Amino acid sequence: MQILGISAYYHDSAAALVVDGEIVAAAQEERFSRKKHDAKFPIGAIAYCLKEAATTLQDIDQIVFYDKPLVKFERLLETYLAYAPKGLSSFITAMPIWLKEKLYLKTLLRKELAKLAECKTSQLPPVLFTEHHQAHAASAFFPSPFERAAVLCLDGVGEWATTSVWLGLGHQLTPQWEIDFPHSLGLLYSAFTYYIGFKVNSGEYKLMGLAPYGEPKYVDQILNHLLDLKEDGTFRLNMDYFNYSVGLTMTNQKFHALFGGPPRQGEGNLTQKDMDLASSIQKVTEEVVLRLAKTVKKELNVDYLCLAGGVALNCVANGRIVRESEFKDIWIQPAAGDAGGAVGAALAIWHQYHEKPRTPGTGDAPKGAAKGDRMKGSYLGPSFTTAEIIESLNTLDARYQQLDDRELMPRLAEILEHGNVVGWFSGRMEFGPRALGGRSIIGDPRSPKMQSVMNLKIKYRESFRPFAPSVLAERVSDYFDIDRPSPYMLLVAPVKEKLHIKMTQEQEQLFGIDKLNIPRSQIPAVTHVDYSARIQTVHKETNSRYYELIRHFEAQTGCAVLVNTSFNVRGEPIVCTPEDAYRCFMRTEMDYLVIENLLLAKSEQPKGNFDESWKTEFELD
């Protein structure tokens, strides 16, 4: 049976294809449209999924959407009525698109699908709907390695739920309880994202990266005025300080007065106050998540926890759950946001609607093992043959060498050792927001200049943004205080103390962004200012080529770690095709590009292929 899952129309549209319970393909629309966080109907993603499975829309058995629009519409109406006459401008803005499109979503979906398949709507398979948090929960539990687990979903808002708890057992998910809109941890975090001057639904990563540069000075103000937090982790927001339920902004004048001024303008300088606010909301978020996790453990008497929803991408909070809760293990859906809802919706239909059994892996996998889950390392996107790549590069008039891995890997290890930055394009593209060695930019983590070089000359983004280490799975405990795999870059852990570089008395007096350029460890490019790192363990079973590259780098340098960041620049989605990769390579100061077994040196490319006119728009993003 073939089930196509779709997430669309809010943010991060995606499609996923499940065949007899196996996730065959999944991808976000942004990778094909080249529009970051694209919310439109995922034509490109659906077309890719069908091509990957060598099937057609008419051959699909069922199509499922990850949300129930009528229930969401009910929530919008009830919210506007509850706050009337406030919110009139927001109501007038929202209603036309609902009355024209979203309220009749089933009809709209069938029209779009028929257009894509070039057929009549009567020839299409039936369209079903799951609840938003049901899709999140299914995306977290069904691919997980666990037979029985608690599932905690935390996001902005679905239909009504913003936080939900489920019990997963075998092939069933049973809802336990939820917290409803407008009380939302995700929206609280987004309110501070907005206030500090970053974009909501995309800048939350920046807020988390900025937090270690500040001090949590505003925690008491948040808990005393904004958030009524109970011992068990449940909470209510004081809506007097927020505008998102009725307005077109996240915060209001009362919020601004509480924190001493209006929101930072996007291109304004970051101040110590901004860093302290980021530190404070991050600390509060961690506390809420940790309390909820402990409560769920106690209530459901389970050994394992699964996480999904946008808040589950907060890898610092996830790291605290690992270290401070009593769960034997946790598993986080790598595409934890709305994109992952496409996978979850399809799996929910297979396992719950059709009552198909599920065979999970073992939750007690040996240390360093990358087995158990069904996400295939999240390598679920397109790949390209050598012939296709060569044709693309020839069209672009690129210069390249073709080498087999026996030649390429040791040569790359030397290139990296000499401080070069390399674009790495290999195998299937990752599903989710993290680059995991399929579409990555890589470098030497021992270089104290690498973080600054990558941020300012390659990514064209804020200098404080941290990078992640890719480490051989069996060597992770040699570098970091963590005793388990982290294949999806969703856990933060401390760097081993033996690798720390002791700061001078003068350096210890620095604060804020001045901390940035002080090497903290023997792998400074991946060590954050608080001596932590966002870890990706690399496993031979799921990405043998990336594993072999790191192994050769270790043989060359004695270091089993590489810097890994996503293959894109600011404001642009991660690259999908060889053409995307070459253009990104030529528009940045990357030194080398590897596309499968083709090696390209920047110094050998035709001068006419350089184009830097595009940079202006991203500098203003």
From TrEMBL:
Annotated segments matching region Disordered: 356-375
Domain of life: Bacteria
Family matches, as Pfam families: Carbam_trans_C, Carbam_trans_N
Stored SUPFAM superfamilies: Actin-like ATPase domain
Chain ranges of the Carbamoyltransferase C-terminal domain: 413-602
Stretches assigned to the Carbamoyltransferase domain: 2-347
Similarity-based family: Belongs to the NodU/CmcH family.
Protein name from the UniProt record: Carbamoyltransferase
